[in-house]
Amino acid sequence: MSDAGADATPQSLVRMANQIASHAEHKPHDVAVETVAAHLVDFWAPSMRSTLITYVDAGGAGLTPLARDAVDRLR
Amino acid sequence: MSRTTTVDLGTPAVPGIASVQVVVDGLPVVVPPGTSIMRAAALAGVDVPRLCATDSLDAFGSCRLCLVEVDGRAGTPASCTTPCAPGMTVSTQTPRLEKLRRGVMELYISDHPLDCLTCPANGDCELQDMAGVVGLRDVRYGYEGENHLDEPTDDSNPYFSFDGSKCITCSRCVRACDEVQGTFALTIAGRGFDSKVTAGAGETFMSSECVSCGACVQACPTSTLQEKTVIELGVPTRTVKTTCAYCGVGCSFNAELRGDQVVRMVPDKNGGANEGHSCVKGRFAWGYATHRDRQLEPMVRESITDPWRTVSWAAAIDHAAQRFLAIQAEHGVGAIGGITSSRCTNEEVYAVQKLIRAAFGNNNVDTCARVCHSPTGYGLKQTFGTSAGTQDFASVAAADVMVVIGANPTDGHPVFASRMKRRLREGAELIVIDPRRIDLVRSPHIQASAHLQLLPGTNVAIVNALGHVVVTEGLVDRDFVAQRCEDDSFADWEKFIARPENSPEAVAGITGVPAEDIRAAARTYATARNAAIYYGLGVTEHSQGSTMVMGMANLAMATGNIGRDGVGINPLRGQNNVQGSCDMGSFPHELPGYRHVSDDTVRAVFEDIWGKSLDATPGLRIPNMFDAAIAGRYLGMFIQGEDIAQSDPNVAHVKAALGSLELLVVQDLFLNETAKFAHVFLPGTSFLEKDGTFTNAERRINRVRPVMAPKTGKQEWQVACELATAMGYPMDYANGAEIMDEIAATTPTFAGVSFDRLDELGSIQWPCNDAAPGGTRIMHADGFVRGKGHFVDTPFVPTDERTSRKFPLILTTGRILSQYNVGAQTRRTENVRWHGEDVIEIHEHDAETRGIADGTAVTITSRVGETVLRAKISDRMPQGVVYTTFHYPGSGANVVTTDYSDWATNCPEYKVTAVELAPTSRLPVTDAEMHAEHQPVSGRT
User: CB-based contact (8 Å) between B641 and chain A?
Assistant: First the structure.
């Protein structure tokens, strides 16, 4: 497993997730959520995803609505 | 192996079908129309004596040595300038010709030093050879007449000398500078007897506009222009064919040696990438390989504040292995990882990614391509189906329009730039999209038809506006789109791109480029018979780098500029093996051949051969590794041949991450900036010692052959194998060829590649497999790799890095011709004579309003850091934008760059940093001061 505890800081992940989401904002919401979630699965280490899920569970401050919905899709 | 000489047919090949039959000295030969008699004779096996002719240059007809007789024609025409005609019967050796040639040679030799025995070119001189060929036995005119024997020698260039006394004024050097290099730095000054070769306007070579490519030296038939290494060491005695280790052009060279000492590097005329040309780095700047700074023994230390201890290979590898295993035991399998290098061979990179995936047991492998062309990988895979430039370099000869975006080929990829310039001199149009006025915009016999001088960070707005014009002005190639691209994605993109916010008028305010200029450029590109896009890091190193790559791909598909000569999307790769390191599975989400780690079928191929279960989830990228290190959860790292403490952005963050590691293993030629944080140093091999392959920007796999034994005693892939073995995963290969065989067995695009096949063909452009056994010059010729071309909507999203009252200028970074990347190699050569320190270029108005004078020191302050450089006032820069290079560690260019990055790949946004400049009394940090920060090396323990 690549993700045995290795992760990035939540703020860094929030910024990255929001940036990915900003490039899907022009799509219909459902499609955009799927696109962002798929990107996170394809390119992010599992630890980064799980850190962000935990962060959302703790309130997810700073995440855009699309980014938050995409993170929720990862559960 | 003895020294090999390349066959020279006297004049260039003429394209076309061989249909003209002539007879030369009784030998029939059939050649394409327009072929010279000299070349036809050479093809028939008859060498006509010559001095001013060589097949890399157009015929000139000045030396009068190549005279021939043609049946039925009067006189003795020059065979180099006389084309063959059907049925022509030619005699190259008759009493009349012999007499004429001896007479010509007499004149040459009457004004030439008779010092052959002590001349550096003795035994390697065409004048000497020709004197023998024509049977010259005496000189009736004597040697006391007026002559040029007292002409001075120009020794100003560090790599070659010009001895005017030996010049025969054949103009080969002048023509090489014009035709091959395209710089036009040399000329023949004076008339008649006073004619002489001159650099610039009567300057020395060093002070002229000469770029030291060495084409003139290679063309010189005497010792007039001579490599100083030949003068010092003598004529080489053996040759090894290999590949340059500098930029992504990947020039082929004949390394010419005496024993195992390199005397000179001569570009290989048969090299597919360079066809006999080179730049100052490849031809001359190889001295770093034997520089005294090289570390040749492994070293370890407990703490980064301790002095280094030299140890045996076994001790160093065991130390590293045990420490890696201990970290994993305490913190988990994913607590370690590594970075592969785009300067290393495919075989070395493959071995390291295998070390990480199989021995480390995770996918925490990334590559320095992360910080340069990872958006190319993402963007071209999304749109075309694979991460690769579409063309070979030769394709540019068929381009009618070139669009150069965010690249500076004359500095970054000079040998390819010479090809571009040749085509531009033939009449192709050029559009440059760049904030800075690069040399290509206006140089001798080159004038761009448009320079869209956009603000940094607005590439996507420009490419969208170009697409908008194509769609709204009816310039779409409907047939191409209908046949080759997806209907749905094109329809979506067509609607998206036609929106008013994408119009040139709407983006003019964002980009700073007048709408009419964008419209004109779009029409030029879309209506050309063949239009090609060439791009560099000015495209990729942005927060929208991947978007821009996809935007360019959209544009090429919409206009049908894909799949044939003269078109395409062509990334100009920065380092020698960027393409190869990516091909070899260096990204944390992809196995070799760009196949996702989650693909069970692909993973099974490797699991079967490697005998190890592999992780199915992506690992950490380099920036993620840094974040995780600072968070205390990533503690061990192997870095192969990269100096991330100098090359990566926001180096304070990078250094904090490196300083957090419990174990950093660095493999490199030198104790670089990153090694200051290392616990284990494993010495690396230079390109002159490696046995493997590099893959250049045109997907061309070239052999890198060792010209000397590894000075460290090991190939780098052996070190990776030994480290893996010491960690409990046995890894072993007999040689580099065996690794390539494994690559071919696991990676479909390399299925037909082997060292034997490379020896046979010279080089191979992948894909090379049953469907394309000889490789593939041009991709997507009959269909895209992914099937139908995929259009992607590319909304412009401004970067978060913004100018403000406090940081009103935008800093962008790049390269200079004489230096390379972080300068580890070129700073250890005479190339420092051209560029001894990095400077910051600034527009005159911006300088004046800040009280900055040319050459004075200034602070460059961004939101993340500050550094000091000398200012250079430059009219290349638009107002509001400043520019620097990052070749010297003390310059700290990346102290000020931020960690903003591409949304899809995390490729850093080097090209946009908001800064302010101010005069300062501080001085830039010197190389010596940086070097002094290294801990000392103690004796062996």
Answer: no
Residue with tokens 């908001």: B914
Identity of the residue in A12, A19, A23 whose CB atom sits nearest the CB atom of B627: A12
Supply A72's token pair.
Answer: 């929720």
Q: Which of B633, B718, B648, B728 is nearest to B684 (CA)?
A: B718
Q: Of B243, B240, B241, B246, give the one whose Cα is nearest residue B281.
A: B246
3-state DSSP call for residue B738? helix
Judged by a CB distance cut-off of 8 A, whether residue A2 touches chain B is yes
Could you tell me the pLDDT band of residue A1, with boundaries at 50, 70 and 90? very low
Separation between Cα atoms, residue B868 and residue B856, nearest integer Å? 10
Helix axis angle, B487-497 to B459-472, nearest 10°: 100
User: Encoding tokens for residue B368?
Assistant: 């320095």
Kindly report the pTM of this predicted structure.
0.95
Which of the two residues, B649 and B271, has the higher pLDDT score?
B271
| CA atoms of B514 and B505, how far apart (whole Å) | 8
Distance from CA of B577 to the nearest CA of A (A): 23
Q: Is B412 exposed, middle or buried (0-12, 13-18, 19+ CB in 10 A)?
A: buried
Which two tokens mark B764?
A: 């191979």
Within 10 A of B601 (CB to CB), how many other CB atoms are there?
7
Q: Is the dihedral of CA B428, B434, B439, B441 positive or negative?
A: positive
Task: Please indicate whether, in this complex, the C-beta atoms of B617 and A2 are within 8 angstroms of each other.
Answer: yes
Kindly state the DSSP code that residue B50 receives in the 8-state scheme. Answer: -
C-beta atoms of B364 and A6 within 8 A: yes
pLDDT digits (tens, 9 = 90+) for B66-79: 999 999 999 999 99
| A18: contact with B, CB 8 A cutoff | no
